[in-house]
Amino acid sequence: MKEFNSEQRVLDGTAWEEFCDTLKEAGKVIQSDNAPKDAFNQAEGYRYLTRLLRAGLESCIEFRDPAFPVLRNGTHETIKMGADNPDNRYEGAIIDPQYDYKIIGTRGTVDYLGLSTVANKYSKDGTMETTGFLDSRDLDINDDDSFEVIISQKEQPGNWLPMTEETNSINVRQTFQDRVNENQADLKIERMDSDTARPTPFSAEKLDRGLKGAARFVRGTSQMFEDWAETFLPIMNELPAADQAYCQKIGGDPNIFYFHSAWQLADDEVYVIDAPVVPECQTWNFQLDNWWMESLDYSNHTIHINKHTAHYEADGSVRIVVSHTNPGVPNWVETAGHNIGTMCWRWIKAESNPLLNARVMKLEDLKILCK
Questions:
Q1: 10, 188, 239, 251 — which has fewest CB within 10 A?
Q2: pLDDT single digits (tens) 290-309
Q3: Distance (Å, rounded) from C-alpha 33 to C-alpha 313?
């Protein structure tokens, strides 16, 4: 896109009008034929679009310059997407494979730290393929808890995170077992050849490009996850292993084995998930999401269980109960006002990935079963 074209598009309002038109198109995703049509779920859907818009504007306008990257927390309590993990701190930065970068910081005590370079094409074809991955357990860490990772296409000695010609972003996942007592890794990214230069001033071209990117992100991301949620309809209230290749294609962690599906409960029903075997693993968790594949409100409700918070049976198995009201049993996951949604189970760095047993039953029957 040439500068003079962008200047004209900004001056005559075309850039803004096309931005608004694309957002209007994104609104049709919420009205998809198989999406819930009640006011509650529709309201969450439109709020979801506003959250995606905030994420898109930050990524495409405020933190877009790969010459001066910033690791930012782009998915959190009020920006959610793609079955975001409540145990995670997500960070990311825009990068360019023509540069070399380094991440410097301290490891902290967070249970799991994974760094990946990705070819993020969410706004184009809904994919986010991993182009390089580094597990913190493979890092060389100094005695003072500090470390450095080089990010480049050419292999480097020490801690090296590969890039390819397709790489355009870096993702960092920190997974907590106990947020109260664990300390997060403190990280920053910088270009290896950075000097005293400063970012160039904002311009019409930057605005035009950024508005286009943000609007495409909202439309593409919302459509991708709506389409994915609809594929769960034939297996409603089952919880089979997901298509792991697809999970990786859209940005899944290579160390995670995923289970995804949808759930629906009447007011007097509960959803019971049994894990007869819990394998040796770094961690595991289960979470409840809404139809739009946003994690439910984990700030105010217990909507997920993990390896640390779970109650285990005497034989080492785990039973989780999804219920609208307190069923009086351990491992209660709250629906937080929802009657339909999606869900996810993860085995993380597990020696095996055993299947799960899941069924819907009446709340009264559960009480009899647990006597």
A1: 188
A2: 999 999 999 999 999 999 99
A3: 42
